[in-house]
Structure formats: C-alpha cells, structure tokens
Amino acid sequence: MPNYLNDPTLNQPLFPGSHIVLDDHYAFISGLTVMDIPGGETVLGDIHEETRWVMRRLVKILEYAGCDIADTVRVDIHLTNLDNAQQVDAVYAEFFNHTRYPARTCTESSRLYDGSHVEITLMARRPQKVKDHEDDANGEQSDR
Description:
Layout (H helix, E strand, L loop, with lengths): L2 E3 L14 E3 L3 E7 L14 H18 L7 E8 L5 H8 L10 E6 L9 E8 L2 H10 L7
Parallel strand pairs: 4-5
Antiparallel strand pairs: 1-2, 2-3, 3-6, 4-6
Helix pairs in contact: 1-2
Family: Belongs to the RutC family.
Protein name: RidA family protein
Pfam families: Ribonuc_L-PSP
C-alpha cells in the first residue's frame, strides 16, 4: 500500500499531490523548484544556486524518506532554457558517484512555477532495511 507524505519543512504543495510517495520498493519525489524551499527566492535567477538548493533539499527529502541520494535510479530535470544544461550538469554531478549516475531526462519547459528556472523530480530505490523496519512497525512479516 503506498504511503503519501509531505516534507514538514516545506510548504504544502501548490498542486493536488504529495511531496513523497513510498511504495514497497521506491520513493517517488515530486518536482521541486527553489521557490518550494523557504528562502529560495534569494537565489532565484542564479542557475547554479537554484540547482544546488534543489539538489540539497532533495537529499534531505530522501533522508526523511529513509533513502540516500545514492539510491536514486531516475531523475527528470526541467529547465526554462536548455542552453543552461551544462551549468546545471556541473552542479548536479557533485551529488552523485561519477560511475553511478541515475537514468535521466532533461527537457526545456517554457515556464515553471513562480519563475523558477530549474525543476527536478526523482525516484529512488528504497533500502531493504527501511522496508523491513516499516513492516515490523506495522506487525507484518518481513523477508529477513
């Protein structure tokens, strides 16, 4: 049964959805822009800093969901200007092992919420120990 969560450090989503959806194997994180992050307006327009703020917050959201950035298997990046892809890539690459980048799509979207220039969505594989702990907490049998 999926578990629908919102990160308590972020504002409630402006759309009808959840920040995080967990199933038995994956954590699905909704698209995040710098304007979703308290204080993010201070870096709006600086593509490096927008990307860095979003990636740092995604790391925290994954931790909240019991995952690590290294568990990421897929990323979708939306940019208002695809010409900024190399600048975004430079920051993005800092967060992953250079031999284990997740599968990824990068597209240009003419407009993102609240004037942001970068939106990132990701999916991560949940570590087995997290699932086992949740099963134990719910009184379910685990595969250990």
